[in-house]
Specification:
By secondary structure, this protein is an alpha/beta fold. The protein has a single domain, classed as Rossmann fold. 26% of the residues lie in helices and 25% in strands. The protein contains 6 helices and 9 strands, in the order ααββαβαβαββαβββ. Strands 5-4-3-6-7-8-9 form a 7-stranded mixed β-sheet. The protein has a two-stranded antiparallel sheet with strand order 1-2. Strand 3, helix 4 and strand 4 form a beta-alpha-beta unit. It is globular and about 50 Å long.
Length: 231
């Protein structure tokens, strides 16, 4: 059972840190983050921090999930592409806000776990795919919104091509200065407008799909501290 006091505390923290979109806050409140967290970290499920998951990835800090979702400017009729399913938490939040979510993951184990969680929550408006996120999902394009939960060296051209006119993409991108920043891209009739948002730390966006994955181990229960973000 979710920690009701922890949920209230988290929502208050998000408001305090500037998250104002009521729909986003309600989606986070209704999405049981403890379902997406490894057993060793259940006690910290409602803390505003990133936590390790299997395959060397993480579940993102709730503030980052809320911030990125708010900047997507979602509407109920939207179709959203997510690159980097991870635990499935970001996709589950989005599924409460839009008509359909298409989410891509390169790690089979993570995708299978996420699919089970979506089924447990009765989220039937999420489509999943095991694939290289750089290529997007061309046959389902164009998308009203695109969100990327891993840091790209540069914005993939395929994703720009799949963003509908009037659409918005939020993506972490490497900078020449050795850090990453979150970038908001709007597809206008005159081209792509880019807005720099905040510095972030995400796992890198890798190409291809691993041919073979060893059975992932649970992260050690004593491991704490800052972690890179992931969905």
């Amino acid at each position: 059972m979710s920690d009701s006091a922890g949920i209230v505390r988290l929502i208050m923290e998000l408001r305090h840190h500037g998250i104002q979109d009521r729909r986003v806050l309600e989606a986070i409140e209704k999405t049981p983050r403890d379902l997406f967290v490894e057993d060793a970290f259940k006690a910290h499920a409602w803390d505003d921090t990133a936590l390790p998951i299997s395959c060397g990835q993480t579940i993102s800090q709730p503030y980052i999930v809320a911030f990125m979702t708010e900047h997507l400017e979602t509407a109920p009729q939207h179709r959203v592409l997510e690159i980097g399913t991870g635990s499935g938490y970001q996709a589950a939040v989005l599924a409460r806000l839009v008509r359909r979510v298409f989410t891509i993951e390169r790690h089979r184990h993570l995708l299978e776990q996420a699919r089970r969680r979506f089924a447990m929550l009765g989220l039937t408006n999420i489509e999943t795919r095991l694939a290289d996120g750089h290529k997007g999902w061309p046959e389902a394009a164009p998308f009203d919104r695109i969100i990327v939960t891993a840091a790209a060296a540069r914005v993939p051209e395929a994703l720009l091509d799949q963003l509908a006119e009037g659409g918005v993409m939020v993506i972490p991108v490497d900078t020449p200065h050795g850090y990453q920043e979150l970038v908001k891209i709007r597809h206008t009739p005159h081209g792509f407008e880019r807005e720099r948002l905040i510095p972030v730390r995400f796992v890198p966006m890798l190409s291809g799909v691993p041919r073979r994955e060893d059975a992932p181990e649970d992260p050690p229960p004593e491991r704490r501290g800052p972690h890179k973000e992931r969905g």
